[in-house]
Design goal:
Layout: E1 26-28, H1 34-39, E2 61-67, H2 72-93, E3 97-103, H3 119-135, E4 156-169, E5 172-183, E6 189-193, E7 198-199, H4 201-215, H5 223-230, H6 242-245, H7 258-268, H8 270-281
Parallel strand pairs: 2-3, 2-4
Antiparallel strand pairs: 1-6, 4-5, 5-6, 5-7
Helix pairs in contact: 2-7, 4-5
Length: 283
Amino acid sequence: MEPDTKSVIGSTTYQLLRQSVDQKPEIFPVDSDKLFETAIVPNSFRAFGSKNLNVLAGKSIQVAIAYPTEKEEKIAPLRKTIESYIKQQKEKRSISINIEEFFFQVKDTGVGEQPLYPQGLVGALERIYYIQDSLLGKRDWEQRKFKQPDVQEFDRIIIPSLESDLRASTKGIYDKPNVIFYECFTGHFVAGMGTGPYVEKDIFELSQRLGDVLFDDSKAVTYGKTLMAVFPQPKMNHANWHGVVCHDDPITKAKCDRVYFIKQLCEALGEQLTEFFAKVFHP
């Protein structure tokens, strides 16, 4: 087989560059049980109680954004999305909204290092449950970089949760982000599944075999780590290998890295996010 000369990673017999799989994002309606039907798990969001937004004149709405990660490539597109929709609410209601961010380390989601569809949705849900239990004092406080905040100091607590997984389709295996935006006091949520880079079957199967042999767990060695080992690249990050195997966006010239695919999903959620934030700030 001739090497794929268009691939960013050259001189290989693998067609590593098939760009992203031509698969449209899948969007769940706001507050839809379809999320849990797809994930094949029950709805287990924790109850925080309701809280109105009858803010006194001259006061600001206090909003906590609790990210279940410290990874900047995950945080950046989620933060930009949230800020844009909160700005819309501020302008529509002529109100002041103060944002305080928290970055949680979630040690174990129960779905492994390399979940397969639909376990990415499960992992995203488990990240939300971890933060909720931590804030409500239902589990030991494990965060070392900040103290447990008092939830009653906030009018809204938004958790944007992200977990990727690998999904097989008729067009091949691809890495995709799964995102859930959840607000704790109103209980509103919205979710979606995106698209991403093509995953080479041979390398994926190699990562599974390595996981079985080394850790007795087929999910323990990720595709990105195996890709780095087989085709070492000085700028490759095993957690953000997407931009190495994909060319830049032909129209926008944006680098097709992990941030790019998360941003694409958030943009596809536009209509649903507008509804979500309207419900969160206009209960």
